[in-house]
Fold each of these.
Amino acid sequence: MPMPAETQVAVAWALQQDGVTVDESSTVVDAVRQYFNSHSIPYETFSYDDLAPYL
Amino acid sequence: MVTIKNSELRDLWKQAADGIGEPDDSPVSDGSSEATIIALLKGLQGIIGLVTASPTSNTVQDRLKALADRIGEVAASPTANTLLARLKTLEGYLDGLEAGIGAPSDAAATGDGSLIAIVKQLRAILTDVWNDTNHRLNAALPDVSAEFGSTAGSKGLMIAGSDGSNARAIKTKSDGTVLTELTGRIVEEVVVYNALAIASTGNNLSGIIDVSKYRALSILVRSSLDQSASVRVTSLSSGVPSIRITKSWDTSTAGFVDTAVVIPVDTERWYALHTHPQFAAFLSQPIRQLQFNVVCTVAPTSGSFMLVIWGVPN
């Protein structure tokens, strides 16, 4: 399943959160996931590599 | 006494006069044609040509003059581009070459000198250092000529540092092994799961990682998932036969069990998976390739999972 359409917005939001840095991939992924959850955006298992095109 | 009649004498004179010819006879230069002496001389004169500054073209004189012009005159400075001028230039080169080579009587020279003088000096040097009895140079260094196992001398071959100075001798152990010192080691990192946000209870197989080039492995995991995750490792070989090892011996149950470890819910800590007894026993065996699978029995709703391998190359 492709990444949600809102991924670009989610990544932009994630990178503005405290403690989120691309040097620690898990902080970015966890924050993006948090964005998906808070906006009720359905998603399947993904990893930092799936976010690379949006960074 | 021979008597010749007047009529006979007149005939002889006429034959001679006919052979000589008349002064106005046309020149004959064709040898195959019959002609008078005067005609032939005129033809011959035409072929040879007159000796003048500008002989008639295509006469022998004309060709000789052209040849003389090309050879040049014998002089201190022959006309340029004549054969003599070229020979004189060549002569100058030969003189220089002769001087460079030198004479057999030249004395050996340590500085500038003829080729023979320098070769003589080299011969003298080689004669001084060559030991004809032992077929080696007399200038052998003391350490090089020392017997094996003997006490090292105070002199030896030196190797300079990369800066071209600070030359040092090579040290060895008593058995001859060259002393070496490791100043560090290379540790390669392979990220197997790069922050995997698991959102289901299905399998999450990794790619196949070739670890045959590592002599030591560390397997590190970190989970910020809100559910525990089971990590399973498979040792495999894609050769013939294809082998997949998923079970290892468990001393607590005295039986083979899946090589799997449950990673609890945690947000910060990294776990050294290779230190777990089950993994440690598994990883202590020869391994060609590894594949991981991480499974959650309850689908996590937040967090992610990391798995990294540190390998020390062989």
Amino acid sequence: MIPFRHFDPLPLRHVGPLDAPSKEKNVIALTTLFKYWFANEDGSTAHEYDIPNSVAIINCGGYVDKLIKYRHPRIKAYFEKNGFDISKAGEADIPLLLTRSPKLDVLVAQLVAAYSTVDVLVKIFDHGCSVSEHYDLLNAILSANIGRRAQEIIAYTGLDISPLLLAASRMLHADVPADRFRLIRTEGSRVPLDDASQDISLSVGVINHVADPKNALSELLRVTKRSAVFAAWVTSEPAGFWAINHSGVASYFYSRNDLDEISLASPRGRFHVVEFIPESESSQPNSYVGIGAERIATLGCYHLVWTTDGELPFATHLMA
Amino acid sequence: MTANLGRFAGKVIYPTGGSVPLHVMPLFDFHLDAALDTATIVSLRSARQLGKDGVLDEPALFAWRQRMALDEIVDLMREGLTAIKSPMPRILEIGGESGLIYERLKHDISADGGEFDFAYTIEGSAAAAPYLEALHGAESHVPTFVDRSRAISIDSDLIVLNHLHGIRRFDWTGDDFERDFARVKGEAVLALQVSLGDAFTATTVRGHRVVLPSIRGVISRLPAAAGSTARLVRDFDKDFFLPELPDRTGLFLCRLGPASRHRPGYREVASIDV
């Protein structure tokens, strides 16, 4: 293959074109193209090739790729050797395990191991499940650590808005008994499940994108019986705000006040902080349309566990 | 020239009506061709299992099917299958890695109330194996995968030389092409990106170096098969190749074997105007 030079058509700027206080710079509609774009050494365009695509298709490809990697025997072998510890994934040359999603899956797996009993399935709710790739990593971790496959100890419910992703999920998990693998198609602001009906809930990179993120988080906690594991993108600004992410999808940054309100309204449990990752240190700091580095420095992502239990099987600290 | 080019692959977001990007986001290969293949397979599988088309269709998938000449290749294959007397025809597809053709074939056969009474082998690069397993492994009828780097001979009743798909996934040099072209015999379907002049090597936007055989050379060396028909689509997906090509390109779609019906746009191979 030809080793092309890397070309960034639009490097991150200190102040983005849509950053406050430039209220007059509102964008009312966006057009997204998918393309291969070639530049000459002077930066001029040498060639462009458009390809058909959509957000759902990109997500489908990305998450199916992740699922296939999770199914590789070396993933299970890693967990057989290292238990629930993913800190050695770099040494083992599996950098995928050091990304956000596996970190949260490992927390869920530890909770499943702690909650599982011989004859009762652990109910897991996956909010924004895409192709249910979390299920496959849980399967690898649980098989390695407690010798039981996911379908032997988990009753899984996934929720997503995309019919394409749900169809892919069904197709890729055709071997899991239907009564242990349920999918719901709906927008994620409201969750059509009973109060405290799920032992564990999980939401990775979704809860900020739904139509009503504050209600969605309240709903996630409402349906959770014991622990909810989730990523929440936050701002240090006094009020939460909406941005547009690289998919053209609206994305809400919770304020601290938002989280406090939701916590007070959900008194059965408390928020525990596992990790905080500043947005500037994330793998995709240039994810938001029109936002420059100055404002990105005020953003970050909490890995949180809301739990009704007194103790958790991993280190956390209570959210102050 | 190509080695000095900078390449970006991904999303480019514009204010609607504008021409200056507001945002860009690089994408990986698995978000691009592989994602489109996967989504198309999911769409076809869902349509087959639910018994109705269009359940997951969206414009991008329709466009992708056209760019892959998917429906047309499968239609040619089905005509070939009807001409084969074996109760369990063996199909060999060279170049199609994801099983896209295979899934479309099953969809179309199922829509007509037929059975999957054929064996299917896909020859591609080794990296394709886990994808094929994940996407097709849970089905009752599954394809066999062969790593094309391992030189083995595969018996088949219908050979599909899927150069159109293959050059998107791997380098396909002149030696590769000659080796694969020499395997074409009997019932066969060809989907070849060709040069309308002399053969030359092109660079694809994905960075692969691929030979585009001369259309005249291909036609002159096709095994004689009475009634074989073909069509040439000039400039088909030509921007997939980096510019400064020495000649125009085109897609050569051909079925070797006697045509059972008139197919619009198709002519006897010998009368193709090149």
